[in-house]
Specification:
Helix content is 43%, strand content 12%. By secondary structure, it is of the alpha+beta class. One of its GO terms (molecular function) is cysteine-type aminopeptidase activity.
């Protein structure tokens, strides 16, 4: 190791002051947001928010507020388009809070069961796996197959029948309380495994723990109704009544015929050398419902993801996708473009020296956010550039009808199991406002 010397520091300082552009950049950047200072105006001027193919616009505009529920919002927004078309309505939301509630309860049970499994392998509590699982066990984020588990088990319901709460809109307090309790529960379960408690004793204790978590969620989010009655007007102002009906029947009878969660395929683009395309992957201990389907990634070249997404949009269907939204992003304009920031002009450096595979390997990028594609132009993406899609989109969900036979065949594979801390296990949770 080589010490940083005073002569080196003097050299750095001399180089800095020798270029007047650095002084101008310093004067501006110390007072204003450096991301706004480095914005590339030519790129902003080239975007017109216009598409060759665009799905129908619906209302209201949804907002996850101060929570990490983007994956839930994106799913329910994709789902409501064919549902609203079928019922001939122009104003509707599914209850995001309903899915959120059951995810918290189910995920508590999932992690407690996972901890027991890990502890029975005689892993120390300071091992990398246990430390990772304890880092943020019931965060707000999630993956597509976790949505499949929740909706297939609990169904869906209109937002009017189970609206938002303070803690669904601002989930920090809820998550802090649940994580504190789960770490306490993990300690109790560790000691039970150490003293060779029976499986019946362990499961009785987990049942008590999940009951406490249920109580916390019910107090902060409300208690989801077992059945409900929904009244609405269609576009011709005809009054309609649905119910009394359970959320499970609401999904199976009214939603599933037009949007079947089981028909959707999760395509990912993981270009790392040890993750060949045409293979199925899963991530150890990535899930939320014990007994539900495991998270399954169908790894394909980025061109397959682009073609499937474009084909879906051209048929008037929107697309759930996961990406690293914070990279090369202009929040005020909603533009995702590799050239939207001119860092070289302001700082004399570029942030594009390593490719997508190396960014995954060196911890520079992973999936942070889920959103919905609603339009596409075949020449170029006018809100997200084609190059940005290649570099920072990791996952798209499309109906199996849009995929070739060889892609679908991957679904039959026994997936390669990636470690729990692998970047492909990242959960979409970043709030919409960056």
């Amino acid at each position: 190791m080589t010490e940083l010397t005073q002569s080196q520091i003097d050299e750095y300082s001399k180089d800095f002051y020798s270029d007047s552009k650095n002084l101008l950049a310093q004067s501006v950047a110390v007072k204003f947001d450096p991301l706004e200072v480095s914005i590339n105006r030519d790129i902003l001027n080239s975007y017109h928010h216009c598409f060759q193919h665009k799905v129908a616009e619906v209302k209201p505009v949804t907002n996850q507020r101060s929570s990490g529920r983007c994956w839930i919002f994106a799913c329910l927004n994709v789902m409501r388009l064919p549902f609203m078309k079928e019922l001939n309505i122009d104003d509707f939301e599914f209850s995001q809070n309903y899915i959120f509630f059951w995810d918290k309860v189910e995920r508590t049970n999932y992690f407690l069961q996972s901890f027991v499994d890990v502890f029975k392998k005689n892993l120390p509590v300071d091992s990398r796996l246990v430390s990772y699982l304890l880092s943020n066990p019931v965060n707000d984020g999630g993956q597509w197959d976790m949505l499949v588990n929740l909706i297939e088990k609990y169904g869906v319901m209109p937002k009017k029948c189970f609206p938002e709460s303070h803690s669904s809109n601002a989930s920090r307090r809820l998550n802090g309380l649940l994580n504190t309790k789960i770490r306490e529960y993990a300690h109790i379960l560790y000691e039970m495994v150490e003293r060779k408690a029976t499986d019946d004793e362990i499961q009785a204790e987990i049942k008590r723990m999940v009951g406490e978590a249920f109580r916390i969620c019910a107090i902060l989010l409300g208690t989801p109704p077992k059945e409900f009655t929904w009244e609405y007007y269609d576009k011709t102002r005809n009054h309609k009544v649905v119910g009394p009906i359970t959320p499970q029947d609401f999904y199976s009878q009214l939603v599933k015929p037009v949007f079947n969660m089981k028909d959707k395929i999760c395509l990912v683009n993981d270009p790392r050398p040890n993750s060949p395309f045409g293979k199925g992957y899963t991530v150890e201990y990535l899930g939320n419902v014990v007994g539900g389907q495991r998270t399954f990634y169908n790894n394909q070249p980025i061109e397959v993801l682009k073609a499937a997404a474009a084909s879906t949009l051209m048929e008037g269907e929107s697309v759930w996708f996961g990406c690293d939204v914070g990279k090369h992003y202009s929040g005020k304009t909603g533009i995702l473009d590799l050239n939207v920031r001119n860092y070289d002009l302001v700082f004399g450096v570029t942030t594009r020296n390593i490719d997508k595979a190396k960014r995954l390997l060196f911890g520079e990028s992973l999936m942070t956010h889920a959103m919905v594609f609603t339009g596409v132009s075949l020449e170029e993406y006018l809100i997200m550039s084609d190059d940005w899609f290649s570099e920072f989109v990791y996952e798209v969900i499309v109906d199996k009808k849009h995929l070739a036979a060889e892609v679908l065949e991957v679904q039959n594979q026994d997936p390669v199991v990636l470690p729990a801390w692998d970047p492909m296990g990242a959960l979409a949770e970043l709030p919409a406002k960056l």
